[in-house]
Amino acid sequence: MEAIPTAAAASDALAQLERSRAQWSLLDALLRRLVTRLTYAADGRGPALDAALATIRRQVREPVGEAELEPLLTELGEAIKALDEPEAAGGRAPDPLPFTESLSVGQMLLALVDRLKLGDEALDRLEALRQTISDSTDPGTLAVQAEAIATLVNRQCERLTEARDAAERLLKHVTEQLEELAVYLAREDMSHRDGASAREQLDQEVLGEIRELESEVASACELGALQTQVQQRLGAISGHLKNFRQREDAREREWQARTEQMSQRIRELERSAQAMETSLRQERALASTDPLTGVANRLVFEQHIADACLRAARSGAQSSLLVLDIDRFKQINDNFGHAAGDRALRIVAEQLRAGLRSDDLLARYGGEEFVVVLAGVGAEAALRAAESLRRRIESLGFHGQQRPVRITLSCGVTVLRADDSPESAFERADSALYRAKRGGRNRCELA
Asked: Which ranges in 42-65 belong to alpha helices (H)?
């Protein structure tokens, strides 16, 4: 008679199954990454094979069933068979690209396009380039797109050169205004000295006349002659005072004119400085903002997560990282167009930002993927925040071509550790995101 399993034995069995499931999940994630990298290595050997590999890359990110794998394997086998029979096709099989070249051509162009921040006026052009590059495996087409990217970058460089020239012109203008101010101050100093000298001269002249008058009074013999001499001295003093007043009036008018001129120059300088400050603020915002969604860009996130890792290592400061990905976003683009996809990204970004604290960082990582850094938040609170964001997006009333479209997202959550690097923290959160995808999407997983 077989023994009935005890509760402890059942518990051990469940624990073993859970460990096995976790090991298989990890192996599944590693195999998916390996498949993705192998498909990159085989790029460039033929249009049919490249198309099959691109399909496989798209599929391995999402959970794939046996029924979906079978046609993929058949398509891949036919593409490989076509490469093995080049003569029958009336041609020669193309030389395989080296691994580094096959990896760099399409994918590096896409990565470059995602990192370009060229302003709102270039959004449509960048999206068109992104779509063309994604859909193309032809080296000639990719070369044309690379040239188009170079043209856009050159235009941005020209705009930056113009901005630099404008800054140089402003600097020159400011320098000239400061030189005028220095001349004005020097003239004011000289005018002040001239005024002091004129007052001293007046004092000496009046004092001299008074002394002469005292001497004449002391030596005067007749009253009539004394009156005449007093009148002459008083007239001379009056003349000195009149001349002094005229010189002071002229100096005052000159001072007022110079002061008004300098006030006008200072107002011009203030306006120029304010214009430059506004321009610099706009340039800083452009350099740190994703132009499509208006949230922070990947560069800001990389700086922010590096600082958070440094704080965790130095003082044990707690922070959490969320990696969020819109589920089945490609279907929105395919079914409703890229304009609808862009609108969905903007709405999702707006709702995510509304659901976060003011000191939390929200950034667009690339494509349909967003990242959030929560300062001072542990595992449980971070998972609650992620669930709140997930429910917020799930409840959106989004429409594409006047039809309701359900938008959901999956999220991976991790808490930064003292020994974390930005890469290790992101890798952990990204693995949790993959588990959420495999678990049925529209869910959050804690690493």
From this structure: 47-61
Rounded Cα–Cα distance for residues 247 and 365 (Å) = 73
Strands 361-366 and 398-400: unpaired
Each domain of the chain, given as residue ranges in start order, spans: 7-96, 116-288, 298-446
Q: In what order do the strands lie in the sheet with 444-446?
A: 361-366, 369-375, 319-326, 409-415, 444-446
Mean pLDDT of the region 421-426? 93
What amino acid occupies position 362?
L
CB 123 within 8 A of CB 291: yes
User: Is domain 298-446 classified as CATH 3.30.70.270?
Assistant: yes
What are the tens digits of pLDDT across the range 241-258?
777 778 877 877 887 887
For residue 294, give both structure tokens: 């208006």
Local confidence band at 132 (pLDDT 50, 70, 90 cut-offs): confident
* pLDDT tens digits, 330-364: 899 888 888 889 999 999 999 999 999 999 999 99
